[in-house]
Design goal:
The complex is a heterodimer. By secondary structure, chain A is of the alpha/beta class. The longest helix of chain A is centred in the middle third of the chain and has 21 residues. Chain B is an alpha/beta fold. Classes of the chains: A alpha/beta, B alpha/beta.
C-alpha cells in the first residue's frame, strides 16, 4: 500500500505547511481582529475540531467565503471549504428570522415582484429602515436592490416562441437577481446571444442556487434546491444537448464547486457544461467565424473582479469581450473584495467590516473617469452603487448597449 | 487564448522573465498556482556566497571559472562568465524600473542582517534595510531598536546580543498604542503583515512617529522590524523627516512585508506593461507536436487551452511544488520534464542537518540554453528557469535569487532573439 496516496483528505488540509500566506490575503483578517484568520479558522482549527467538536469557534461566521485564501495558498489547501464545512458541521447557532428573509431570495422575490412599486417605496422609507435595523438587525445604511415589476420569467414566456426559432440553442440559468430585480440583464443576454445566432432557453425548473441559504445555515433547504437545479441542468445537458450558461459569477461558482464541496452533491457529469456567458461567447468567437457588430459609440469602463470570479479564474473572458468593443476605454481595477459578500454586508454586525474591506476599492473607483464600473456579480454591483458615486453594469449589458 | 509566451509560475523568476518580455513587445500570460516564496524573503537577494566546495566568495565575478569546474551543470556555468557578468550588472536598474528598489553590486558582496541579528553575505538588499560593508562590524556605534509589544516574530533580545558582540550598543524600546493592542485580540495573528496594515493608515503612522521621537539623542539610527510600507510608498522618508534621524528596517520571521511588497510591485509592473497574471490556477496537461509544446490546459480554463510560441517553466522547487519528491523518485509534475536526482534514496540526505543535502541540488535537466528535456529529447520551445533548475544548492551556495533572476533574464533575451 502506498501510504502517501491515502493520507490526503478532500479539502487537502494535511498539505498546510502553516506558511500564513492565506491570512495575508484575507480581506476580513485585514480589518476585523475578531476573526482569527483563515489559517487558524481553517486547517489549524480543523486539527482540533477533528479531536473534539467543542473546539469549534463561532467567530468562523465572520468568514465571508470569498475564497481568496484558496487562490493565494501555495499548497492547494481548500481553506475556504474547510471553514464553511466546519460551520455546517459544528455550528449550533440557529439562524434568525432575519437570516431566513435574507437567504430566501426566491420566496421573498416572488412575494415582492407583483407589488414592486409599493415594496420598493416602503423599503426605501426611513421608518422601515429603522425597523429593519432595530428589530431585524439589517443595517439602516443599506439599500435593498429594487424589485422589478414583473419577473424575467414572465417576460420570457412571451419571447419563448421567437427564441425557439433559432437554429442553435443554449439554456440560461438566470438566477434570482435577474428574475426579480434586474430582468433587463436577462433581456440583454438574450439580445447578445441572438446577435450571435443563438436562441436562449430556460431550464425546466430553476431554483435559487442556494448560496445565501448555505451562508446563513439553511443546509437542508440548500440541498433540496441544489438537487432540483442539478436535475434540470442534467435534462438540459444530457437529454437536450444544451449547455447551461449564467450571468452571475456566484451562481455559477456555487453550482460548479459549492454543490460538490459543501453540499455533497455530485455534479461531475454536468459540471463542465455549466459556465458563465462571457466564457461561452469568448470560446465561440475564438473557434468560429462569427463576429459581433458594434455601433461604435464611445464608452469608458472599469472592470471589477468579483471574488468568485477570481476563484473561477475567468475574469479574463469578460475583460477580453469588453476589449472587443470599438472605442472602449477599459481600466482593470485591482482584484480585491468589495466587502458585501451577498447577505453578509447587509447584517448590522458586519456593516463596518464590510465597508472597511471595500474602502480601497471604492477609492480606486472614485479616482477613475468612467461611465460604468463593470462586474459579473450582482451583489458587488449593489455594494459599488451603495458605496460610490458610479453606476455598475454587467459585461453582457455593456455588450448589449454597444451592439448595432 | 493566444499568447507569445506562457510562463508557468509567478514568483521572482516568472515575473522577471515576464516583465522583460512584455517590455520588449511580447504578449505574455503568467499562470501561478498560489503565491510565491517571495512572501518569505529575507529582504535580500543572494548571487553567490560560497563555492560548491565551501570556499567563501567575496567577489562573485572572480570565481565563475572555478564554479564551472566544480559544478559543470550549475546554471551559472551554463551562462558562462561573460553572460553572468553582463546580466548581473543590469539587475539593479531592471528591478528599480519594476518598482523594487535594491542596493548592491555583483562585483562585491555586502552583508545583511538576519532576523536573529547575525550577518550574512548577500548581493542585493531592499533599500530600506540595514546594509553592512564588513562582515564583523555594523556601520553604527549606538542604535535604538524599536519593537511592537506582543510581536513575537522579531527576536529583539537575540539581535541586541549579536549587535553588542559586534561592538554596537543597542537600546531597546517597546511600542504600544490602542490600535496595536487591538490586534492582540487574536494572539495567533499578531503578524508582520497585520501590523504593517495598521501603519498603512495615517493616524497609526503618526502614532509611530510619536513613539520614535522618544529616541535617545546619541543614538545614530533607529532600527525597526520590517513592518511598515506594505502598500504605502516612502514610509521611511516620511518617518525620517519627522524624527530627524535615519530609520532602517530589519527583516522579521515570515511573512515578509518587503517580500510581499516586491511581489506586488512586480506583478503590477507586469500588468501595467499589458501582461496577464492568472493566480490560483494549475496547469494540468500539455499537447506536443514534435518537440514543441503547442497547447497547454489548466484546471480553471478546462477545454479552452493556452496557445503560445514559447513556454517558460518557473514553478519553483519543493515548497512551490515545482518538484515533487516521492519515496522512489523526484519528478516535475507539470510537463513531466526529465529531472536529475540520485536513484538511491539513502544518498538524498546527510544525517547531519547542517551538511549540504544532495536533494537540494536535484532539479530539472536542461541544455545550455535552459531548454527542458523530455525523455532525453530537448524540447524546442520549453525553457526552464529559477529554483526548479538542476545543479545548484541555493542554501549552501547562497545563490537562489541570483539563479532565478539571471536565468529569467537570459531566457527572456533568448526568446526575443529567436
Amino acid at each position: 500500500m502506498n501510504l502517501q496516496e491515502h493520507n490526503i483528505s478532500d479539502n487537502n488540509f494535511e498539505q498546510c505547511i502553516k506558511c500564513t500566506v492565506c491570512t495575508v490575503y484575507c480581506p476580513v483578517a485585514a480589518v476585523n481582529p475578531a476573526f482569527p484568520g483563515p489559517k487558524q479558522a481553517g486547517p489549524d482549527g480543523e486539527r482540533l475540531r477533528l479531536k473534539k467538536n467543542n473546539f469549534y469557534d463561532e467567530t468562523l461566521k465572520y468568514c465571508l467565503n470569498c475564497k481568496r485564501c484558496e487562490v493565494a495558498c501555495p499548497s492547494n489547501v481548500k481553506i475556504g471549504d474547510i471553514i464553511q464545512s466546519a460551520r455546517i458541521k459544528y455550528s449550533e447557532k440557529k439562524p434568525k428570522l432575519r437570516d431566513f428573509m435574507l437567504a430566501n431570495t426566491d420566496l421573498v422575490g416572488s412575494l415582492s415582484t407583483p407589488f414592486a412599486p409599493v415594496v420598493n417605496a416602503v423599503l426605501g422609507l426611513k421608518p422601515t429602515k429603522a425597523v429593519l435595523d432595530g428589530v431585524l438587525k439589517i443595517d439602516h445604511r443599506r439599500t435593498f436592490p429594487k424589485y422589478a415589476f414583473g419577473t424575467f420569467e414572465s417576460w420570457y414566456k412571451k419571447e419563448a416562441k421567437k427564441q425557439a426559432s433559432f437554429p442553435r440553442q443554449v439554456s440560461y440559468f438566470h438566477g434570482c437577481y435577474v428574475n426579480y430585480n434586474n430582468p433587463q440583464l436577462g433581456k440583454d443576454l438574450v439580445k447578445v446571444m441572438n446577435a450571435l445566432g443563438i436562441g436562449v432557453q430556460l431550464l425546466k425548473k430553476e431554483k435559487c442556487c442556494g448560496v445565501a441559504l448555505i451562508s446563513n445555515g439553511f443546509i437542508n433547504q440548500a440541498k433540496k434546491q441544489a438537487e432540483i437545479n442539478i436535475n434540470s441542468i442534467r435534462e438540459s445537458v444530457n437529454q437536450n444537448n444544451l449547455p447551461v450558461i449564467a450571468t452571475s459569477s456566484t451562481c455559477t461558482f456555487t453550482i460548479r464547486d459549492e454543490y460538490p464541496h459543501l453540499l455533497g452533491i455530485d455534479n461531475a457529469d454536468v459540471r463542465d457544461q455549466v459556465e458563465l456567458s462571457t466564457r461561452y461567447i469568448y470560446r465561440l468567437l475564438m473557434q468560429e467565424d462569427i463576429k459581433l457588430k458594434f455601433n461604435g459609440k464611445k464608452i469608458k469602463v472599469a472592470y471589477h473582479t468579483p471574488c468568485h470570479m477570481e476563484k473561477l479564474g475567468w475574469a479574463y473572458y469578460s475583460i477580453e469581450l469588453l476589449k472587443l468593443i470599438p472605442n472602449v476605454e477599459l481600466t482593470v481595477l485591482d482584484s480585491q473584495c468589495c466587502g458585501i459578500a451577498g447577505t453578509y454586508g447587509f447584517k448590522k454586525e458586519n456593516y463596518k467590516t464590510s465597508q472597511d474591506i471595500g474602502e480601497s476599492l471604492f477609492r480606486q473607483i472614485e479616482a477613475c473617469d468612467i461611465d460604468y464600473v463593470v462586474t459579473d456579480c450582482e451583489t458587488c454591483k449593489w455594494q459599488i452603487e451603495m458605496s460610490t458615486s458610479k453606476s455598475c453594469e454587467h459585461p453582457i449589458s455593456i455588450l448589449a448597449k454597444a451592439l448595432e | 487564448m493566444k499568447f507569445d509566451t506562457l510562463i508557468i509560475g509567478g514568483g521572482l523568476a516568472g515575473l522577471v522573465c515576464g516583465i522583460y518580455l512584455q517590455k520588449h513587445g511580447q504578449r505574455c500570460v503568467i499562470v501561478s498556482s498560489g503565491q510565491s516564496a517571495l512572501h518569505f524573503s529575507s529582504g535580500s537577494f543572494d548571487l553567490l556566497n560560497y563555492l560548491p566546495d565551501g570556499t567563501p566568495v567575496e567577489r562573485p565575478f572572480e570565481v565563475i571559472g572555478a564554479l564551472k569546474q566544480q559544478s559543470p551543470r550549475h546554471p551559472y556555468a551554463k551562462l558562462g562568465e561573460d553572460r553572468f557578468k553582463e546580466l548581473s550588472n543590469c539587475v539593479v536598474d531592471f528591478l528599480a524600473e519594476a518598482g523594487v528598489q535594491v542596493v548592491g553590486n555583483p562585483e562585491q558582496n555586502h552583508y545583511r542582517v538576519t532576523p536573529m541579528g547575525t550577518l550574512k553575505p548577500t548581493w542585493l538588499t531592499f533599500k530600506e534595510q540595514v546594509v553592512c560593508e564588513q562582515e564583523d562590524k555594523l556601520p553604527w556605534k549606538k542604535i535604538a531598536l524599536f519593537n511592537i509589544t506582543g510581536f513575537l516574530d522579531f527576536y529583539s533580545r537575540f539581535i541586541i546580543d549579536e549587535f553588542q558582540r559586534l561592538g554596537t550598543e543597542c537600546v531597546l524600546h517597546e511600542i504600544s498604542f490602542p490600535a496595536v493592542e487591538g490586534l492582540r485580540q487574536n494572539p495567533t495573528e499578531m503578524r508582520s503583515v497585520n501590523i504593517a496594515r495598521l501603519f498603512d493608515k495615517q493616524e497609526n503612522l503618526d502614532e509611530l512617529v510619536r513613539a520614535l521621537k522618544t529616541v535617545e539623542t546619541d543614538c545614530e539610527v533607529i532600527v525597526l522590524p520590517a513592518i511598515a510600507g506594505l502598500s504605502r510608498d516612502n514610509v521611511l522618508t516620511y518617518l525620517e523627516e519627522r524624527v530627524n534621524k535615519k530609520v532602517c528596517l530589519l527583516p522579521t520571521l515570515p511573512p515578509s512585508v518587503p517580500g510581499i511588497r516586491a511581489q506586488q510591485q512586480m506583478r503590477k509592473a507586469f500588468e501595467r506593461l499589458g501582461g496577464v497574471y492568472m493566480l490560483g490556477d494549475t496547469v494540468l496537461k500539455a499537447d506536443r507536436e514534435g518537440n514543441s509544446v503547442v497547447r497547454v490546459y489548466s484546471y480553471n480554463h478546462g477545454d479552452i487551452p493556452f496557445m503560445m510560441k514559447n513556454v517558460v517553466l518557473a514553478t519553483g522547487s519543493y515548497f512551490s511544488q515545482g518538484l515533487i519528491a516521492v519515496p522512489d523518485k523526484v519528478y516535475e509534475p507539470v510537463l513531466n520534464l526529465d529531472v536529475d536526482f540520485i536513484a538511491n534514496r539513502k544518498e538524498w540526505y546527510d544525517m547531519n542537518v547542517f551538511a549540504p543535502q544532495a536533494y537540494e541540488a536535484f532539479g530539472v535537466k536542461t541544455d545550455d540554453d535552459f531548454r527542458g528535456i523530455s525523455q532525453g529529447q530537448v524540447l524546442d520551445n520549453v525553457y526552464v528557469i529559477g529554483s526548479i533548475l538542476e545543479g545548484f544548492n541555493a542554501i549552501k551556495q547562497g545563490c537562489g535569487a541570483g539563479v532565478s533572476i539571471l536565468s529569467a533574464l537570459y531566457v527572456a533575451k533568448r526568446i526575443l532573439s529567436k
